[in-house]
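User: Predict structure, ligand adenosine monophosphate.
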Amino acid sequence: MHGLMMNTPLTITSIMRHVERNSPEGEIVSVTADQPLHRLTYRQAFARARKLANALNRLGIASSERVATLAWNDYRHFELYYAISCAGLVLHTINPRLFAEQIEYIVNHAEDRYIFTDVMFVPLLEKLAPQLPGVEGYVVMTDAAHMPQSTLPNLLCYETLLEAESEDFEWPELDENTASALCYTSGTTGNPKGVLYSHRATVLHTYASALPDVMNLRAGDVVLPVVPLFHANGWGTTYTVPMVGAKLVFPGPKLGDGETLHRLMESEGVTAALGVPTVWLALLQYLRDSGVTLTTLQRTIVGGSACPLAIMDEFREKHGVETHHAWGMTEMSPLGTFNSLLPGMETLDHQALQAVRAKQGRAVYGVEMKIVDDEGNELPWDGERFGTLKVRGPWIASDYYRTGEKGSALDSKGWFNTGDVATIDASGYMQITDRTKDVIKSGGEWISSIDLENAAVAHPGVLEAAVIGVAHAKWAERPLMIVVPGEGGNLDKETLLEFLAAHVAKWWLPDDIVFVDEIPHTATGKISKVGLRERFGDYRLPTDTED
Ligand code: AMP
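Assistant: Predicted complex:
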């Protein structure tokens, strides 16, 4: 027997309608390339989204076709998020930090019909355009006064396009499983793979993300997504923040600029901000150098890479800001786990509390997790054993877009292999210890490169640290640590090894430490272990004495 409840489709359009009705005066504040600070309300933004939908219609883009964006975080990108998906088209957010060949590949693979671009990416597109035969036109996200001179074919201006359209548009009633957005993961090998989100998955992810022990969002919040909107839906902020009626603050192209972030936080009364660890390093550095503090910020949400405890400590101790670790993937919309304390944990001693905070957190309802060994046997949740992390749930990819191999993303029981290695403790807190391919296998035992990196960056003389496994005749592989020294720059190997010895098992200690000026990063801001392996792959460790 079926229940007798309405089968209302879960669509992004329903979020938009809810916001228009219930929080029309909620604000979106943006820094954009053409304006230092721009303000509009949700009512205005959705009215503009209807004009945009009319324009897309006029351009002849049909149901389910892909429309791409190459843009930072601002109100125009927000409007595109709603206009494209709610018109029944697919929003393809492109990461401009990808290599040019990767952008060429994904635009052609996605068969994008139009690309909406920020002014600053026009030169990049001019170079690529001859290789993008399927793209019919380029829309520059600016007004007529700021339109660049360009050789791009069929060049259009965003504001001019909107001016010509009416605010009346009848949003189509979509099936909730309709594709809404497409985001390619920048895999380290092979071509990037497309993750195709649906309206239903997005709505469920939006509900879950806002929960009190997750992002804890409410109408009174002011949220600054420093995570780019092209990185896994900007962690869902374009949906979650309006859904609860909170104010959105977008930093435009100034994501890594500590001064702008601080100014926006203070002038707009930001209460919650989201981003990868590197942006927080930039902000904290600015706060240190200028001697200012944060008066309204209550919490930061950090994901994308493991957040060093040093960042969390500095936020809490100097600025009264609590940092929450979150973990997820492009394939997971992206949220999987979130770190909030359970009742009673506040009274734990400092060290025990730090150990909890360093973990990536507990599964959000909607995400099932398990860890397995190399034979696929499930491992206990004891916080000790580590294995491959597998997940399943309604906002996790079941397949990649048009790979030609259907069902390739899941195992026979429907679990998605995250490629991460993790422990899970008895309270359900998951901790990433490595990527499967980065774990260091020393004499048959596993060493976590992330634990070693976290331990190293806790030293004040270390700005950034990365650990890779290099060949060793006796142990098969041993850790090599690569360090970018911090201010002062007079840290030596022995001092750092002594410091590390107090934090990790003796047999985990790196066999050597090299100091460098810079560590390579991927397009999503993570340390590029591939780049490091290319540079240090043949490194001969001083302990590797057998010929
Ligand atoms: P992406 O799809 O680019 O978001 O990358 C997802 C991957 O980033 C995950 O599989 C993890 O390896 C890594 N990741 C994401 N969040 C965290 C975190 N909080 N701590 C450690 N690694 C993370």
